[in-house]
Amino acid sequence: MKYIHVRGASENNLQGLSVDLPREALTVITGVSGSGKSSLAFDTIYKEGHRRFLESLSAYARRFLGGIDKPDVDSIEGLSPSISIEQRTIQRNPRSTVGTMTEIYDHLRLLYARLGVPHCPSCSKVIDSQSAEQVAGQLLAVHRGARGLFCAPLVRERRGAFASIFAQLKKDGFRRLLIDGEMTRLEEEIPALDPAEIHSIDIIYDRLDVSLGRRSRIVEAVERCFALADDTFRFIVDGTDPGDTENQRLFSGRFSCADCEVDLPALNTRIFSFNLPAGMCPGCRGTGVALQVDPGLLIASSRRPLLRGGLAVDFTMKGKGRPAFDPGIPGSLLRHLGLGTDATWEQLDQDARDTMLHGAGKLPGLLEYLDEARTEDEAFLNELATEGVCRQCAGQRLSGLSRSVEFSGATIGSLCDKPIDDLKKFFAAVELEGTAGEIACPIIEEITRRLCFLEDVGLGYLTLGRAAPSLAGGEVQRVRLAGQLGSALQGVVFVLDEPSVGLHSRDNRRLLDALAGLRDRGNSVIVVEHDRETIELADHVIDMGPGAGVEGGCIIAEGTAAEIAKEPNSLTGDYLAGRKKACRRTKIREPWRRAIRLEGVTRNNLRDCDVEIPLERMVAISGVSGSGKSTLINQVLHPALLRKLGKKAGSCGEIRKLSGHEFIDKIICVNQAAIGRNSRSNPATYSKIFTLIRELFSRLPEARARGYRPARFSFNVDGGRCIECGGAGLQSVDMQFLAPVEVICEACGGQRYNRETLEIRYRGKNIAEILDLTVKETLDIFSTVPRIYRVLETLDRLGLGYLKLGQPATTLSGGEGQRLKLANELQKTSTGKTLYLLDEPTTGLHFEDVRILLDALDGLVKRGNSVLVIEHNLDVIGAADHVIDLGPEGGNKGGRVVAAGTPAELSSAADSFTARALRDHLAGGPAQERGPSGLPGEAEARPDGIRIEGASLNNLKAVDVTIPHEKLTVLTGVSGSGKSSLAFGTLFAEGQRRYLDSLSTYARHFLGNLSSPPVEKITGMAPAIAIDQKSGTATARSTVATITEVHDYLRLLYAHVGTPHCPECDRLLAWSTPSRLSEEIVSLNAGAKMHILAPLCIEEASGDALRKTIAELVKDGCTRVLVAGDEIRLDEGEDAALRRLLNCLPSDDTSRHPQIYLVADRVVISESVQSRIAASIENCYSRTGGVAATRIENGEIQRHCREPSCPDGHFTFDGSLSPRMFSFNSFEGACPSCKGAGSELKVVPEELIVEAEKPLRGALSEPLRTYMENFRPSALVVLEAVERHLGLEGPYSTRALPEETLDVLLRGLGEKKISLTLKMGQHEASWSGLATLLEEWARSRDPNLAGAGLERLFVQMECASCHGQRLRPESLAVRVADKGIHDLLALSIEDVRDFFQGIALSAKDEAIAGDVLRELSNRLRFLEDVGLGYLTLDRRGNTLSGGEAQRIRLASQLGNRLTGAIYVLDEPTIGLHEWDTRGLLGSLAELKASGNTVVVVEHDRQMIEAADYLVDMGPGAGDGGGEIVAEGTPRDIAGNKESLTGRYLCGSMAVDAGRDRRAPAEPGISLHGIRRHNLAGLDVNFPSGVLAAITGISGSGKSTLVMEILAGVMKKHLRGTSEFEHVDKAAGLDGYRRLVTVNQKPLGRSRSSTPATYAGAWDLVRSLFAKMPLAMTRGYNQGRFSFNSAQGQCAACEGQGARQVEMQFLSDIWVVCEECGGRRFNKSTLEVHFKGKNVADVLNLEIEEACDFFANQPGILKFLQSMKDVGLGYLKLGQSSPSLSTGEAQRVKLATELAGESIKGTLYILDEPTTGLHFSEVRKLLEILNRLVDGGGSVVVIEHNIDIVNAADWVIDMGPGAGPQGGQIVYEGLPGGLRDCHESKTGECLRAKGIGGGDGP
User: Fold this and answer.
1) Which residues contact 626 (CB under 8 A, 6 or more apart)?
2) What is the pTM of this model?
3) Are 1248 and 1391 in contact (CB under 8 A)?
4) Helices 786-797 and 847-862, interaxial angle, to 10°?
5) Per-residue pLDDT tens for 332-381?
6) CA-CA distance, 1618 to 1288, in Å (whole number)?
7) DSSP assignment letter at 522
8) The dihedral sign for the CA sequence 1712, 1713, 1715, 1720
């Protein structure tokens, strides 16, 4: 696609806009501020592109990425994944630095934690680990004689609740802990810790006296603490407070300096974080700056003696209320310098001054002494303190321990102080080898990559430690750009928000170079911009307008800049063409007479700088980004002038002299701080006029009569605001993973206020109507109120007349927000001597808005004020009276005045970059037609494909390959040749990483490790999306609805628009809010009299109880109650009220609670009292817990409830509907009986009782008896007691027991208890029954039960409570359009989609659920499009066929309709019939046609032949592969003789060797009346002695027939059972004595799992080594030779052979274990040899080598030969399972089963055994299957592979359709006849390929 087609965009003020934006071009969207630019670029295009890509991520990840709502747009076509670079506010957090903003500091922390070398902070020696003996020695030396706690610090200053840690500690037998310094006993209830707070947890291991006699026990305690707490140990002397550091000490087993008694904790990333207590400097708390005594303020007079007035602190006497300062401190310092007490400051040279301030040796300086004293008298010394660089850490922010760790000779603080240019050189010079090199390499590569990005955008002068608040706006912008633009992606939409803001013209050209590079790489770049240069250099310009707000939202003109300049209706065009100019002032002001002079300014990069700033003029401060402008004005001039005005201010750096300040009496500063960004902030509140308006309304006569104060007219305060929406006017509906939906409040209609407040009017308008007026409209209304009018007039003058006063701040554009801030400051009264400081006021402003701003500033100067502007905008600089240009460069190369003068004078300066830009600007001229070639620099060649160079992941051998863009590329080759390593491990991993790098750090935290794969270079890369062969969620708890996330959207729908019904009677629940009930009463009963009542709950009707109730009511001020229709006054006296009350009650009423109502209010109903009625009802609800009553005109009393309740009183719904109520995986929604499973685990009595002639204990199966004797002996004791209780003494027959007695034994005694005699005495015990106990143990997932092989005892049965519907009754009773959620889940996808197409909702419900319904409709449509419309949503995931599960995943991924992405698919044809593969190919073709690149790892011939490009990998597998054998079109590969794939494609090799077919040896297995899923009364015959292929389209019933029915029947038959589930009759089973199944379950995925361990051969190898003479001599058993056993494994790597290095946000690294050299075992174990090889050598053998090595060991050889036969001879015995390809893993399973017992009489069932196999491997598989049949076995395969089907002896074809349209046998017989069966889809595929025929049934 050449364009991004946007249709019907209506976000914010966009008016159904439609536009086509050219792809792979630089498009600028411009227009006046507020015209809708950001709404189009960000809220529509970026949001939708970003949403579509994130939809490809997991549901878990998306949950943490915030609401991804769809923008308000009809359609967008041609949209690629989008990345935004927004104009966020400059980061002002003092804890943020360049390093943290770019995340480079995170990588530095990781580097130092993994490879740092600790040094002693005191003596700087390298420190090493210490043993427990050494620690004991230190304890005895320091704390001998003390008694204290020996603690293991398990958690140190970390956030979390740590519930699992407490549970494990309790389980491990620990009883006492220190939690945040407080002792806690684990036997007691553990306090719930706040997970957001930082906690420390210590295990109290022991309490001991520190004495020589206890040394051995002390050593033992220290060793144990080291083991528990990662080599750390804490000793705490008894009675020590948590804050007392002297009597407690932390020891480290790793790092300790014995000379200085300093211990360092184990190195981790936390101790290098200045945001955590573990790492931060205690002096500045990690900010690098601290409030300290200022040397400049300490010296009161330089000419007076220091001890007599020279210092601001009097050291000679104690003042009243002031502390006494030690005069010895300055005296000692003076004596040290050899000076007398009369010395003055000016007499001291610089060295002497430094000594006085900072001390000498152990003698403290004045600053250190006074800083310590300031903590005692903060108020007094704060007058001398300013914020400055922390003297304790020298601004490095870290503690002394953290600053003492070095890497390559440098500390982390010193690296952060280096400029980026120097830092890059430092890392380039680092040389590391071995393990250190492996660990450091990926970290340093990532650091260097990020440093290069910063250097590329001209920020090489910055340091990583530079604080964010000190950065200039341009620097912040470029830091952000560097982080986003370095991804090297192609095909992406980059959306930028005014990137030129804060950039000098010189720096802007560098930015434009970067944007040009992005575009030239094949990206679409969309920029919201007002900058003239950017507009002129764009390929396409869109001008929006014509006005702002509601007056905008349209496209005025589009085209090139020159075309826009010719458009007469374009305001932008007027400025581009020169028809209008921003500066209209032509007269030059007279030379200035007054000025502020700054001499010797030093701060940041300003070094002894002198500046003269004219007053009563407009002065512009200019210069390149980072040249020192903000430092000069905001950090020096502003605080210095504030101090001169007598106001509190921060540090202003060093100023030698300041003059001219006397001409200034007021300062007004307009900075870059953001305005309020919530919906309650608006122009009226921000500008403070809303306070004036509220005061005005409160002074109106009617308001004063009612007693209304100004707060009554605030929508943020109770009283006047609407109580339903809290004054918001909207009600927000939380939609969880979708963005919240806001609907207009029904109570106030969006007006925010209650009815009474809205009755107060000013000039005919109430307060809500005032807020709804524009600024221009309110000018007339408030023309007579000067204070309000002045503010409104300023807003209008700045072009904001169109804004509504109540418009939420969240809807304001950046330019509108900036002008609102300006107006707020400019409306303040000036004195004529006011100095206005403005920091880049043109941010977000259009040319026209800049003109308005300049007019306003010019007006200020005309009134005698001074205006000082920091600005890059050349219109502003050109309009200034005086310009001061700083530079010449940024950072350390800037900081001085380059030129100063009028704009004309400045333009002639030679060394000024501003001058060069200003000369061109003053020359003027209309926009030029420059187009793409106008961008500076050479255009980068646009890659026409994805070029991968040097890919080296796993077995790839520096592979180079080019994958064409927008084509279907198939990667094929033998299993294990490296296809997945190239496609997924390299291509997909890098494509996803590059895109996800654009997300926030927080978001990436939930997306797994995103490190770069081992590849030299990848160009032409786009964002990648994977559709791989992961198993997904095929569990009993998953369903089609949960897998597709349809259930999540249904939960949202039912939670927000569902209507609750009574679970018992199904009536609609009714409830009333006070406002809704009051409105209903007024509308129906106007003029009637009414009682508002609160039902009182009286426990009894006795006189005492009633008297107590009356007393309480009177005390509360209540005066009336209503009983039996009579009203009784309580203020007549307690006795009289009691008598009347008792008289009103019936005499026989004392047996039940009387119904007494409190009269809360009595009113005559009218609109004027509606609020009073609502308040009274609310009062009743509060008193009674949610119940109120009304009685109108002495009628019947009507009850009302705040919560939904059944009208008949059956049920009250407590709470509100939430999505969790409809989740069967949440306790809020799950059925309590089955916990949301829909079924319960039940014991099968027939399987439980095996020998029924014996007593129950003896009748149990042997494994069950063994389990109970070993793990549940107490249950057997109780069973014996139950038998005695039932009189079953002596031997008895379980079979002969009465049914009631057997039921007691199996199902229990209920609540009845029996007597139990134990050694400890007599006890009572309950008995729930043996079967019930077993079910409870199974549900608790007892691992001992699972390992006992007792699965056959249990069966899953439908839950009796929820009948399989999984949810609670109250959840099932919620309706939408008269259907409960389970009613919908029980429907097919087609039927559910039809339901939603016909659904009708109210307008409010439609507003809430509109997005949910659209998403549901889309997801259901995608499922239908891939042919799954027949599936029901409640179908369990583990019952789906392979093809169905695959298509579900495809449907969820392919529905995003992205353009420009890379889709990587892993064998998508697995589980698909060739007929279904046609549909898949159509979907992939559609993806390709949309401009995407599709890469498929595949062996399927149909897919290979359909490819545009084919890459054949090999030539072998494992180490014999990893190369590209051939590449080109399928035709090219077919003609390549070197390609094994090519030989099969051209027909020179074939899978089937053409052997004769076998006839069935016997009738075989006959199954009749099969009923399961879509099989309905099916009869089928499986011949014996043949290779039978079961085929048919996906979902036709193959897996149900074979894997569930046939395998299930055979299993039961082999166990001796003759009753079969789901089958009426089975015959022909007796000829089989063994069943072997090979299914699709994955191998073990841990490094400990290998082919040898999986196959069982390793047990035999270990047994062999245990029989060796040396092993027998040493007593080594078989377990010694297991790398999973502590006996023989290497202790350092725990038998892994490698050590895992945790890299946090990078992928973890496995490095070869240095202890064992990767051999897994310890030295002693490796000394045992068999035939010259030890056990590690054997693991390193390839299977083919091992066959020769173990040729004389038949037991081992059998397994090895089987693997060799299936083509796995190249695998190593010890190769870890995770490194195996799909095809390799499948063949390992197959070989394991084939190596079992003898073949004869065995039924082999294989489920799609060709999964992941190449043609050549399918041929080997077919040979093995034929060998099994020839050996006397019978083979049944479920298969779609046409070669296998055609080679079979017998075929059963299922169909004709899928789901309900399937489940029938379409054909059975010889393969040749299948071709001629026209009802068979398989037959049609055979005919299309010209295969088969001639040997019909």
Assistant:
1) 459, 461, 462, 471, 472, 474, 475, 605, 889, 890, 891, 894
2) 0.73
3) no
4) 130
5) 888 888 888 888 888 888 888 888 888 887 788 888 888 777 665 555 56
6) 32
7) T
8) negative
